[in-house]
Each structure stands twice: as C-alpha cells, then as structure tokens.
From TrEMBL:
Segments traversing the membrane: none
Main subcellular location: cytoplasm
GO molecular function, one term: DNA binding
Source organism of this protein record: Nothocercus nigrocapillus
The protein's name in its UniProt record: RDM1 protein
Lineage, highest ranks first: Eukaryota, Metazoa, Chordata, Craniata, Vertebrata
Record key words, sorted: Cytoplasm, DNA-binding, Nucleus, RNA-binding
Subcellular localization, as worded in the UniProt entry: Cytoplasm; Nucleus, Nucleolus
A Gene Ontology cellular-component term: cytoplasm
Gene (name only): Rdm1
C-alpha cells in the first residue's frame, strides 16, 4: 500500500515512537538517532528525564516522516539493548499517547532534507524567480525631541521548485522583515539585508514544497504529485508578470 508524505512536520501518532527504559549516558540523543535512523529518515529525536515518580532514567520521543518506517523500527528495536546494557521498550504512540500539535510546514532546511532523501540530491532543483526589496521606514521620536529614523528591511521572494523526472513544478512566495537599529552603520545594514533575504528565500522555498506530495510505493519507488487546492497568485503568473507585481518603484 502506498504512503503519502507531505512536506509538513510529522504529527500523526503512527509516525511517533515512544522509547523508555533509557539509561543516562553522554550523547543519548545521538545514540538514539544513530540506532533508529537506519530504518528511515527521522524528523526529530528528543530525550527527556523521567518524572520523579517513575524512577531514574530517561524516555524519548522519536518522529519519523514515514509511519511505515516507524513501524519497522518499533518491531526491530523493541526489547533490544542496542547501545546500552538493558533492553529498550519501544512502542508506536496511540492516539491517547501521541503528543498533539498543530500541523506545521517544514522549514526550508527540513524540506531539502526530505527531498534529498526520497528524490536524491540531483532529483530536484530550485531557483529564485525574483527577490525584491519592499522596505519602508518607521519614524520614532527620541526623548530629546530628535527624530530617529529606524529602517525596516522587508524582502519578498518568489521561488520555483522543479522535479524534472516527474514533470512537477511548484512556486512559492515568502516575505521576511527585520528592523535595523542603526541604518547608518554599513556593516549592520549589509548583515541585516543578507539575513532578511535568506529568510525570505527560505520561506518561499518552504511554500513551494507545501504543494508537493511524495507517494512512496511498496517497492520503495517514489511518485510525485502536485497538489494545490487553491492556487496562489504566483502559480498562475508568468515570470514577467510576477516580477512586475512585486516590483517596487
């Protein structure tokens, strides 16, 4: 049976493993990651100290992107010692045990990590269509009656993700903003500009990936679908129209 993966933070109970019976040791989360990542790509590994009533030791919450990988890891690792002397207890979280959280978009780094894992480093590409400065200024009065001009840097970015082997193309838009306290300091201005540009590009890349679905088949092959129920303006515009739309004169 095929499994559909979205570029979103894993939130389903079937994607989450609860591991307990962990012994205190340096690099515990690293040891968990090394042992469980053999079964599939992990989104996160978090180790926590047991509550006082539960006695000494730790438990951990592991999130896989794939519920199929989580199930395989649970069956293989439950009751095994792996990296410690005593055996671990591993279970797939039930709906009652799952840690409820809103479904959030993956950040751009996690999107790239997921795409690389299932499509390969050369299986997809991205490009910036346009990156525009849409900044404004906020005037603030100082106590001495002088006017201090604080610059608000704001950039709007449009990115296109292409998956050529599957004929999929997706566009996303991202907006980022930050204040520059001392706009007369060239170094501070340049540093803040680069930071805001990078953040806008990252948001746009994440936005583009949100419209892509990875369909993992039983034989391990991956199909890709474009799934956007409501098109954003960037999807239906040409590059020239998109650049003109956000061009600041």
């Amino acid at each position: 049976m095929a499994e559909v993966l979205e570029f979103r933070v894993p939130a389903a109970s079937a994607q989450t493993l609860l591991v307990w019976g962990l012994e205190a040791a340096p690099g515990l989360e690293h040891s968990l990651f090394s042992a469980f990542s053999k079964f599939g790509l992990l989104y996160s590994v978090r180790a926590h100290r047991n509550a006082a009533v539960a006695g000494p030791g730790y438990y951990a919450v592991l999130k896989f992107y794939s519920s199929r990988d989580a199930c395989r890891a649970q069956r293989a690792c439950n009751g095994q010692r792996l990296f410690q002397k005593s055996p671990l207890k591993v279970c797939v979280c039930t709906k009652q045990k799952a840690f409820q959280m809103p479904v959030l978009a993956l950040n751009s780094n996690k999107c790239q990590e997921l795409a690389n894992h299932y499509l390969g480093f050369n299986g997809w590409s991205s490009r910036i269509i346009t990156l525009q400065n849409v900044s404004g200024f906020d005037n603030e009065n100082e106590e001495m009656g002088k006017t201090l001009q604080k610059q608000s840097l704001k950039y709007l970015c449009a990115v296109e993700v292409t998956i050529p082997n599957h004929g999929v193309r997706s566009r996303g838009v991202g907006l980022a903003e930050a204040n520059v306290e001392n706009g007369e300091d060239p170094l501070e201005f340049v540093t803040a500009t680069r930071r805001v540009q990078k953040l806008a590009a990252g948001k746009a890349l994440s936005s583009a990936f949100q419209k892509i679905l990875l369909v993992v088949l039983d034989n391990g092959k991956v199909a890709v679908e474009y799934n956007c129920t409501e098109e954003e303006p960037a999807d239906s515009l040409t590059e020239e129209e998109l650049k003109g739309l956000i061009q600041v004169n």
